[in-house]
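ingest -> fold -> write
write: protein_1
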Amino acid sequence: MKYHVFHGTTYGYSQPVSLCQNQVHLTPRITGRQNCLRSSVDVMPLPSCQNGWLDYFGNQVHFFSVEIPHEKLSIVARSEVEVFAPLEVTPAQTPPWETIREQLHLPQDEIVLAAAQFCPPSTFIHSSAEAHDYGLASFPPGRPILESLLDLTSRIFHDFQYDQNATGVFTKPAEVFQSRRGVCQDFAHLQMSCLRSLGLAARYVSGYLVTEPPPGTPKLVGADASHAWLSVYCGSAGWIDLDPTNNLVPGIRHITLAWGRDYADVCPIQGVLIGGGQSTLSVAVDVVPDLPSERPE
């Protein structure tokens, strides 16, 4: 399926900003099941300098510097992306989760070594007894890893309530455990905290959900906005994505922007500015399927 993605961000300032420098993760990744056919990032006022590069995790990063006074900053990212359905994996045929844990702690090749970097704590994710015990309930001895992952995903979906007003950008999993409320970023971090506490490798994925669901299916929570989920290393089954906010395995309706150790690695827009006073922020996201036009009889 092919999609057209629009992601517009506007900052308004009560006083002029004399200088701002930002780096953004707004270009969809090219992966085994996703192709970014074209992408652009337009900034107003026009930057005095800008460039791009691939970061440590292989995400496309765009940097710009605006060096003229301004009271409004507009960042518009447009992309055309082709997404393919993931390969079907039978949960019962995936390796026992302890086998994966052992591989990660004694990596024998570059693939496992690369996955192992997603085991340690990071900015937003720390091991804890609470996360360990909550996760362990889905991971009895010898259980195939994907069966356990799907069980944990379902439990988070049912035990925690989606609430846009309950948390902020810097909320940690320990706070979400207490309130039992949060948004997609929180639920991804929470599940990752459980998995890393068990010695497994989990990475944070930022992206989008398709805005219009197929006929007859409910609209997913998080549509018309940036979305977040996680991906878990499953040995011979590779990396498998999980969306605890919607209790499903992401498919052709999930578009991947970037991945990293947690939100801090893939924040859509981050930077510094001089001046500005009070600020306002508005974000508009639209993901439109590129459906073939009907031909006349």
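write: protein_2
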Amino acid sequence: MMLRSLACTALVSLAFSAPPVAASEAGERLGAVLDAQPAEVQARYADRHPAETLDFFGVEPGMTVLEALPGGGWYTKILVDYLGPEGGLVGADYAESMWPLFGFFSDDFIAGKATWVADWTAEANAWVEGGAPVSAFQFGSLPEAMEGSVDTVLLVRALHNLARFEGQGGYLTAALSDVHAALKSGGIVGVVQHEARPDTSDDFADGSHGYLKKAFVIEAFEAAGFEFVAESAINENPNDQPGPEDVVWRLPPTLMGTQEGSEARAAMQAIGESNRMTLKFRKP
């Protein structure tokens, strides 16, 4: 209850966003934030296209943004600085009950999810001095104070596991319900997700390989009450042509299953990061 109370108190303060800034000013501000990131973060810009992606989703300083599965904070650190103290960043982790279903996380890691909201918030609030205030919750337990308070939701590489375990706990349904409730009327959801080709089997594209079909994602969002607005080719990579046994984690940055310096790893590095759909939805 204490964690819920703390989260609600923080989220109430995020419900009032500053007026939008001019597009040119926002672009300059984002450019400066991206230029200030460490070299290892900037090395992934060519694959992740953060400037183009955030622009497509309409993210601006002063907004309140919900980021799913923020983890170590690749996008979080960019967003907290870019949104500024007038805005707010809300991290949303998977439900605590979902983590044991993966089957490979340690007992200590899973136990740590019981205090994730407080632990991650404390860590993330120290990442950027003078940035947007950070709060958090876990999908399936949206604080009431957050309802109708968010301008934009970012679901970047976060949907496949929700879909993968949907049948074991309704996790995708619950997450999309929270997203819908959290957004203001007219709010935007930005999705960047590893994309399975339309001709692949549904078994391959169930999320267990990391990939989902575009038609499946659009259908799920429309069923949850969203309108499909637009798509972009920003994050497409035609070199990513997975076979029926391939998983997305064979590619950079994970490079699972190949040895450093091997021809197999060089082949994966030549492909680059995954082929990703970039979709925009709106809450009516």
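write: annotation protein_2
The chain has one domain: 2-282.
Residues 176 and 224 are 6 Å apart (CA to CA).
pipeline exit 0
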